[in-house]
Design goal:
- This protein is of the alpha/beta class.
- The chain has a single domain, classed as Rossmann fold.
- Helix content is about 50%, strand content about 15%.
- The chain is built from 11 helices and 6 strands.
- The longest helix is centred in the last third of the chain and has 19 residues.
Length: about 250
């Protein structure tokens, strides 16, 4: 029996390899994993031309994946998961959405971030992002994983990063959550200030088939901070449903 496809979506400023690496290793035996990277991030070095939207990012994912698939994403990767569930319910079997929201931040805050990156590069964000990304004690307990994530941010192309900021500035599907018909597991980090637990509760309560889980001690990058827990939640959410429909 072939393994189900699981698409893995990244957070802004990270690569899928850095964010999902340990978690992906735990899932590899059960899924055909298909990670993707944001423009200018990780393995995606295609030049960015013009503005981007979250629907653009969702269409890019659909063009890279064949057949039906499960989806797991963090932050903007989770936003893309919501968009995929709205735009392609015939392709998306279900989604695990970590540390995200139906709207993330405000248009003004994203415009300011994009301007800073255009002017000073992504390295200007390293200190503030490291403080916001990780829960208490993570950097001390997992210095290598933390340094890989910070390095991915420093290596991100400013134009690509700024374009994704623009995509998030225009993203707001709060009024469309009821149109999401695929099963959704919303995973919050108890220490996440960028997308606090109430953002994930809003998703779980708003979609037609939603469930909420909160990870204690986790901030904004749950797949890297708590890979064992996230992998177990993905297996529970996706494999059990796959077996029921097989």
């Amino acid at each position: 029996m072939s393994r189900p496809t699981l698409v893995l979506g990244p957070s802004l400023g990270t690569s899928s390899a850095a964010l999902w690496g340990t978690c992906a290793d735990l899932l590899r035996a059960d899924f055909d994993l298909q990670p993707w990277d944001l423009p200018g991030h990780g393995e995606n070095r295609e030049p960015v031309s013009g503005a981007l939207t979250v629907p653009d990012l969702a269409r890019a994912v659909l063009s890279q994946v064949e057949g039906p698939f499960w989806y797991a994403g963090d932050s903007v990767g989770g936003a893309v998961g919501l968009q995929l569930a709205l735009d392609a319910p015939d392709r998306v079997l279900g989604a695990v959405l970590c540390c995200t929201g139906a709207r993330i931040g405000t248009p003004g805050s994203w415009a300011e971030r994009a301007e800073l990156v255009r002017r000073a590069g992504t390295s200007a964000l390293v200190a503030a992002s490291a403080e916001r990304w990780f829960g208490p004690g993570f950097v001390d307990h997992q210095p290598r994983r933390a340094s890989e994530l910070v390095r991915a941010l420093a290596d991100a192309d400013p134009a690509g990063y700024a374009a994704v900021c623009g995509a998030l500035a225009g993203f707001d599907v709060r009024e469309r959550l009821r149109d999401v018909v695929v099963p959704v597991l919303a995973v919050a980090g108890s220490h996440d200030v960028a997308t606090p637990p109430e953002s994930l509760r809003e998703i779980a309560d708003g979609v037609r088939d939603g469930r909420y889980v909160e990870l204690d001690g986790v901030a904004h990058l749950a797949p890297a901070e708590a890979p064992e827990q996230v992998a177990a939640l993905i297996r529970e959410h996706c494999l059990a449903r796959t077996e029921r429909t097989a």
